[in-house]
TrEMBL record:
Taxonomic lineage from the root: Bacteria, Bacillati, Actinomycetota, Actinomycetes, Micromonosporales
Domain Elongation factor EFG, chain residue ranges per copy: 1-79
Source organism of this protein record: Micromonospora fulviviridis
Alphabetized Pfam families for the sequence: EFG_C
Protein name: Elongation factor EFG domain-containing protein
Length: 109
């Protein structure tokens, strides 16, 4: 989880808060500072980039985001996975054939 500080114009707070919720962020506090709001909270590390990408459009380019690692949290739901893109060394015969092809440059049979 990352801790974030988001400084944004006061008139877009109603637009930004639902987006934060959709990204799994949990705002902890919001403070009115003149014509802007300071929103602080936490957001999953995997969603920080999406927030950075959406922020300029949501705030007319006037929002400023600071985010830093804060703590680990157990994954909720199914754990993220990524399929293997190379040969699986647990399948020894296929793996050794693939390694041999890379070393010798011979095409597969």
């Amino acid at each position: 989880m990352h801790r974030f500080r988001l400084d944004l114009p006061a008139d877009v707070v109603g637009t930004v808060l639902p987006v934060l919720a959709g990204l799994g962020a949990a705002p902890r506090s919001s403070t009115l500072r003149g014509a802007s709001y300071l929103v602080e909270g936490e957001v999953p590390a995997g969603r920080v980039h999406a927030l950075e990408q959406r922020l300029p459009g949501l705030t007319r380019g006037e929002g400023a985001l600071e985010a830093e690692f804060d703590h680990y949290r157990p994954v909720r739901g199914p754990a993220p996975s990524r399929p293997r893109w190379d040969h699986d060394p647990l399948h020894r015969k296929e793996y050794l054939l693939a390694v041999a092809r890379r070393v010798t440059g011979r095409p597969a049979r």
